[in-house]
Amino acid sequence: MPKNKIDTIAVLTPGGDAPGMNTAIRAVVRTAISYGLKVFGIHKGWHGMITGQIKELNLMSVGGIINRGGTMLHTHRCPEFKEKKMRQIAYKNLSERGIDGLIVIGGDGSLAAANVVAQETEFLVTHIPASIDNDISCTDYTIGFDTAVNTALEAIDKIRDTAASHERVFIVEVMGRRHGILALEVGLVAGAEVIVIPEVKYNVKAIAKRILDGRERGKTSFIIVVAEGAIRAHEFAKLLDPKIKDMDVRISVLGHMQRGGSPTAISRELACKTGACAVECLVQGKSRLMMGAVSEDIIEVPFAKVLKHKKKADLRQLRLAEMLAI
Ligand code: F6P
């Protein structure tokens, strides 16, 4: 067997947690140990790297977590990592432990920070995309997205029961930060009559007409999925309510429940494969690579390429959803 290019790695989950992160940590730790590497877990993301919350992990440390939501390493929003002097402290903490490779599991903010680390240091760095937002380019999916879609779907299916009973219009707000990718997928599979996303300017008058026309045809209840990045549900309700006067409008903000829960098979499979691949890249001396999932393959994409491109919502999906929910 050829000699590994590195001896010791560390793994962390900065930024918002996503279901499947634990599955990815398990894959990283067990792959690393099977290659004879020493592996550390950094608690609380970049904050723990600065404050030295770094502990060695073994095979048993990641037992019983494959199905658990959240992240066993915990996380912490860490604006201080933007300061170079804080990053220098973090780098020293890694070097003191003989760490020469780093695996960052997280969303677009984590990827940008991982790129900075790779540019400023000799550490080999790989990134595993994990976010319910699915807003990272060069990968079809991020870990946690499928789980969040299913969680929101289950909630909307329940909301539909009460919406139908009362013949109401329900505005359901879903997460996704500045993007509508999560809302679009949720809206399509939930059969929402209207989907409002930041990528497309909404027209309240046209939406009201769509609802009133639907009622004329015999529809009695309506689900409107609103992406938090487009408009907040309560604000949208204020705009829509006067235009559909004789219909009752209610709102439901799904919020952080979308980030929790046991990861689905799809989120877990992605986590197992990208986790192993991220370690193998480091073992081969590769760096500055994100583990993308394209079609059925895991591909290694340079950070520079991922950061250059913005992921776009597939607007064909919006047209399909509108046609099917008429
Ligand atoms: O990026 C994941 C995400 O859940 C977004 O969808 C949401 O806007 C944001 O994180 C919420 O962040 P926080 O948990 O810090 O409120």
From TrEMBL:
Cofactor: Mg(2+)
Protein name listed in UniProt: ATP-dependent 6-phosphofructokinase
Active site: D133 (proton acceptor)
One Gene Ontology term of the molecular function aspect: fructose-6-phosphate binding
GO biological process: canonical glycolysis; fructose 1,6-bisphosphate metabolic process; fructose 6-phosphate metabolic process
Species the sequence originates in: candidate division WOR-1 bacterium RIFOXYC2_FULL_41_25
Domain Phosphofructokinase residue range list: 9-282
Residue sites binding Mg(2+) per the record: D108
Record's subunit section: Homotetramer.
Activity control mechanisms: Allosterically activated by ADP and other diphosphonucleosides, and allosterically inhibited by phosphoenolpyruvate.
Function: Catalyzes the phosphorylation of D-fructose 6-phosphate to fructose 1,6-bisphosphate by ATP, the first committing step of glycolysis.
Protein family according to the UniProt entry: Belongs to the phosphofructokinase type A (PFKA) family. ATP-dependent PFK group I subfamily. Prokaryotic clade 'B1' sub-subfamily.
GO cellular component, one term: 6-phosphofructokinase complex
Source lineage: Bacteria, Bacillati, Saganbacteria
Chief localisation class: cytoplasm
UniProt EC number: 2.7.1.11
